[in-house]
Structure formats: structure tokens, C-alpha cells
Amino acid sequence: MSTTEANLETGLPGHYGPYGGRFVPEALTSALDQLDAAFRAGIADPEFTTRLVDLERDYTGRPSPLTRAHRFGEHCGGARIYFKREDLNHTGSHKINNVLGQALLAQRMGKTRIIAETGAGQHGVATATAAALLGLQCTVYMGAEDTRRQALNVARMKILGAEVVSVATGSMTLKDAINEAMRDWVACVDDTHYVLGTVTGPAPFPEMVRHFHSVIGRESREQILAVEGRLPDAVAACVGGGSNAMGLFSGFIADPEVQLRGYEAGGDGVETGRHAARFAAGRPGVLHGARTYVMQDQWGQTVPSHSISAGLDYPGVGPEHAWLHDTGRAIYESVNDSEAMDAFALCSRSEGIIPAIETAHGLAGVIRLGKELGPDSVIILNLSGRGDKDVATAARWFGIELEHSEFGASIELSEGR
Amino acid sequence: MSPTGVGRIGSVFAEAKSENRALLIGYLPAGFPTLGESVALVEAMCDGGVDLIEVGLPYSDPLMDGPVIQQAVDQALSNGATPQSVLTVVKAVSDHGVVPVVMSYWNPIEQFGIEAFAHELRQAGGAGVITPDLTIEEGQPWIAAAGSQELAPIFLVAPSSTNERISRIAQVTQGFVYAASTMGVTGARDRVSNMAPQLVARVRASTDLPIAVGLGVSNGAQAAEIAKYADGVIVGSAFVTAANTGGVAAVRQLARELAGGVRLAR
Ligand SMILES: Cc1ncc(COP(=O)(O)O)c(C=O)c1O
Asked: For residue A238, which of A54, A289, A362, B176 is within the disulfide window of CB 3.0 to 4.6 Å?
């Protein structure tokens, strides 16, 4: 069921069945209303859309290729596997699609500063990049645990001129970075836009972020029809907040014959409690402004998530995914750390593509899925990002000796601004 | 027949008005630093002259709170605070003859079950609930549940709220309207925001409900300043800081100072 239909069902905008909505301090309501209006006016304004399409082509490098993964496919029951190459976008992941759209909206609203949360650092890097491009000030909130494991991206953001705030409260990961970014936004909403990095949060964020990523689904659909002459049997993606998945799914949601498959992080294994498997082990609740599946205890306290992948290490998920899950339109499974890292190695060695560890969860899922659907099946995986940022983690995992801790060291740069 | 939650809140505001002063409202999280100590702390607030107490329900992701309350809530949670602790503290306040309301982010109430929460809160002597992240658009089921127990659903207005929203918020709010003085999170500030008087004036234009101002108030002088134009003065972080630095005695002392402040103004 499409978003519009879901909205019709409840009669409330920003809802997907019982999910989504707006659970925010009253102080943010007017900013969300302003954003909603700017978003709708922007996407209806040819000047805005032309500017975005131009940037996507000339700056991001869109369209991203659809690459047939022959050798990797041999490990997927011989299925015809295609990678949608979001890793080849400028800044190395799909995140730039959403950021460019929102940064242009920030400009349109007359805001001079953008802020963001980041887990893996990819969204932070993309936001810092857009800020540099458009001459906006930029602050990125990142959990202290993540600044450690994604030190390379911290350095990139600083080089780009962003202020990086390491958040040492709570579980010190993405969830806490979002709390801090929200607090900043409430206090600075006059001149600041909060560039939320995934399809979570209060309305209109889930719908807007999906919209800016829908280019992934549109291109994929065109590309697969061109090479295969038919729709795929399934499209698949890793699911943190769920933006790369929503972007790809959006191109195929209206085609009931195309399966939608999402892979969330199983961490050490769902049975250990150390995971980020919201669908496997969470239940509906409210987190960060929306009703969705949340990892929580009996009293509604958020339970910290765990994953080797910083970008999937989040106890909530986008509300539209919650709805797709409940309606059965999409199927979600979890992939644990070791299965993901096996797929990471396999993709690197069979295709010459080092994926992000987030993406590796999707790759592991596709190995299962290909075997399930068989050799005649056509499957598109969103190759959401490249693995440069994960080299230190992967080296540690595979026991590769680094001569000196060039990657692991946190790089201190003067905050020039 | 015992008065309803809504009725009790109305009475304390009316009484303060008859004394030509503002009401003093104090906040502390239940279970901070431990359940036993938090009971002693709210009793000290009562003894020091606080008229209405907001008992906080500790939540893991308090995104409207600054560092002082965040830390207090973390401490309460690691010492085992649950909704049951909130009910215990509410009962202690009520038994002390002071009106308790609960301040809670939405998810813990939803997970408890909204009817069950309203029912148990009434049993414990609670009079209403402040819900800082529940918008009126999402609030209908809660407004109904609170109504069935005659508890006051208390919503916030902010300097950024339009007049149209303020009037819709005031229509579904009972007890008092919580006016957030500033755009920002909880925490003591050197000066109370200059946006507060105008916000209160805008709320007055759309409702006869009492209006209480919170966010950033920490001393008697600030309380006196707000008491000139608002019906209630809300103090939170400053009580947490007092508890951290001087325990029960400091909390009682701060309550006295603030109670003096709300009587100075008019
Ligand atoms: C490469 C990559 N893929 C996926 C994700 C997960 O986010 P989402 O589920 O919103 O696509 C991230 C987040 O940091 C990422 O960097």
C-alpha cells in the first residue's frame, strides 16, 4: 500500500496506519509546519526541482549504475543479482540524495545553519559536504562510541569545515546523537534546519526523506527494465532507519509481484539481546517523534541497540517500514555481525567492491534470498555505501595487521570556522 | 465526595489568586536519586511552600531536558525507577496535602496502557499529567482517558505557537496551561526569557485557564518577576541542583525562597 493510501486510511497526514505522526515538544511544531510547507512548495516548484536534478547529475554523479554481480551471484543460488551502486555517489553513499534536497530546502527557508545526527558518519559527511557547497554553517552530533569506530569520517567532516560534537550521554550512539540534535534544534530553530538523516522522526521527515531517495527506486526500475526486460522478483536493502531501503522500495511498492526485503542488524544474535533487530525483538511504541517499532523494556524505556555497523545501530525504524511490515508488503529479517562480515569479504573478493558494513547486511540477506528464489530470479540489492570508512573495523575483524594505527587514531584538526 | 483532579488544581490556583499571589510549582523526577530519597525531597518541597508538585516519570530519551535533569533521570533509572515509583511519590505528595501532577514523555504512558495509567494515577491521588512530547493532534485517546478519570490533561504552549494553535491547545487542556518561556530545553538560565510575558498575554486572550510559566527559573527574584504576570511559576532544574548539592535541606530552603518570590510581586 502506498503512503498516500495509508494516509487516506487514517485521514491524518504523516501517518502510515497507526505509525508515524508527530510526538514532539510544542516548540518544534511550527518549524515542522514550516518545513512541511516548504517541502511541498519546493517539490512543486520547477526552479527547485531543476536545481536538485542538476546537482544530482553534476555533483553527486547520478544516475548511479546498476551493476550485474556475476561472481557474487554464484553464491546466491545462481540468482541474477544486480547492485544499485549508491556507493559511487559523491561522498560514498546514498545519504547525499536526501541531504542535497534538505539543504536546498534549508536555503529556501532562509536558514543559515544546518545540523545533523550521524551514526556511521556517512550522513554527517554528506551534510558537511552540502553545507560547504551551499555556504551554510554545520554542526554534526555523533555518539562518542561512533566517533571512535568511524574516526575517518570524523576527520572528513572536520576537513569539510563542520563542527563535530561527540555525544557522551546514554548509549553514546545514534539514538543519543538524535536526542542532542533535537535539543539543539529546539533552541536554534530560527536560523537552523535539522537535516534528519533517515526516514524516521516526526512528520514530514519520513515522507520527505523517502521522497529525496525515491530517485534510487525510479532509476533502478528503468535500468532493470532496460537490461532484463522485466521487473525484478525482489528488491532488497539493509535497514537502519530505513532510508536507502525506502528509496529503493518506493520504485516497486505499487508492483505486487516485486517482493520487498529488508535486513536489520542482528548484532551478536537476536537471542543474545545484543542486536538492533526492531522487528524481531521490538514492539510498537514512540521514539524520536514517531510511533514505530522500538526496542524497549516492559516500561517503555528504550533499550540500547548493538551492531558492528554504526549505521544500523539504532533501536527504532522508519514508521513506513513498520506499516509495510504489519501489512506484509515487505519482509524483514535480521543478519548478525559475523554473517554480515562474511558477506563483506565475499563481495570484496568476488566483485572488487568493498561495501559499507551496513550494506554488507543486505548482501548477506541476498545470499539467503537468492537461494530461496532460485537461479532464474532477478534481485536488486541497494549497494548503499562503500566501505572505506570501515577499513579499520574490518581489519580488526579479519585480523589484518595495520602497520601503525593510521585509521584508528582520532585525527584532531583545528575547527576552522 | 472527594474533589476531582481537575477540581483540586482549580482550587489551589483559586486560593493563590485570593491571596493575590502566584502559585509555586516544583518538579523532581520520581526515584531520584533513589525512591526513598525522592519521597523525602518532595516532602521537603511541600514543607518549604511548594503548592503543586510535578512528579517526573524518568525516561531514557528526555529530549526536552537539559543536562541537569538528564543526569537526574539517568540516576533514577539506574536505581530502578519505574512507573510504580512515580505512583508512590504521587501518593506521598497527596498524603502531604499538596496537589501532585505527573510529568511524563509519552512512550512510558502508552506502554503502561493509557486507561490503566489514568486509573492508577487517580487511585494514587494524582490530579493531572503534563505530556511534553504529546501534540494535541496525537493526544485524543489520552484526553479521553484522562477525562474518564477526571484528571487534567496539561499541554504546553511555546513562543513559536501560533495564536490559532494556542487556542486549540487551551481548548483541550485542563487545570492550567504550561507556557514554556523560551525556545529550548530545561535548565537554569541567568535571565528568564523576554518572550514569556508576550506568550502569557497571547494565552490569556484565548482562555480563562490559569497559566504557569516554566523553563529557566531558578531563584526567588526570577519567580517574583514571573509572578507579576503569570498565575503559576514552575521550577525544575534548580530543585534538582539543590538536591544534588545540599539534599533535603537545600531543597526546603530553595522552596522557601521561591515561595517568598511568588508572594512578593503584587
Ligand atoms: C552506507 C549506509 N547504508 C545504510 C545505512 C543505514 O541507514 P538507512 O537505513 O537510513 O539507509 C547507513 C547509515 O549510516 C549507511 O551509511
From this structure: A362
